[in-house]
Specification:
single chain, about 200 residues, mainly alpha, Tetracycline Repressor, domain 2, 11 helices, about 70% helix
């Protein structure tokens, strides 16, 4: 029963965020739109900020397909990796879904840097759990690479309109640049060189 309330609260939050700036949303109007009691709300959330963070982090899970762009591409062949990245970017560019609409709200005048950062952290946490990564065992270089991957991933999503503005040649060029950077990062830690334990998980 509570899971259904959560979905109603999340939907109500995104609906209100589309209508007005984040700073102007109140708990009262959120509860009224979601049809959830104040007691139930405060039993599960500290305040509106807590709810907003959870709603945005939950939305980040819907973009797990982008994780494959960086973590599942072919490490053995740079050309194949470029083609694979191009495929994923093209797929993302075709997004006209509810999740794409919600991302655009985050960088609209109604959004906030706090919400964008919450989305980035949600995306990062999802990758960590999905890949079963132990960040405590990462050395400083691995942490930098991982944060860079997450940062660029979320930048692509949040600025989806910019990505969609690229023509086929530009998108292919971007794919090549991305493949080269990721490929070089992985190959710099292969056996025979300065190998970093666990780097293949990045």
């Amino acid at each position: 029963m509570w899971e259904g309330c959560v979905h109603r609260l999340y939907d109500a939050f995104w609906s209100l965020l589309e209508e007005k700036p984040y700073a102007q949303i109140s708990v009262s109007e959120l509860l009224a739109r979601a049809g959830v009691s104040r007691g139930d709300f405060y039993y599960h959330y500290k305040n509106l900020v807590d709810l907003a963070k959870c709603a945005v982090e939950d939305e980040a899970k819907n973009w797990d397909d982008l994780t494959s762009l960086f973590l599942n591409f072919d490490e053995s062949n740079i050309e194949v990796a470029t083609d694979q990245i191009y495929y994923y970017l093209s797929s993302i560019c075709r997004q006209n879904s509810l999740k794409a609409k919600r991302l655009s709200i985050l960088i609209s005048p109604h959004g906030s840097m706090y919400l964008v950062e919450a989305f980035r952290e949600g995306f990062k946490d999802y990758i960590v759990r999905y890949r079963n990564l132990d960040l405590e065992k990462f050395n400083n270089m691995q942490k930098i690479l991982f944060e860079g991957v997450v940062g660029f991933s979320t930048s692509l999503l949040v600025h989806l309109d910019l990505l969609k503005s690229l023509d086929r040649e530009e998108l292919n060029s971007l794919s090549g640049h991305l493949a080269s950077i990721i490929y070089a990062s992985i190959k710099s830690h292969q056996p025979g060189e300065k190998e970093v334990s666990g780097s293949k998980n990045i």
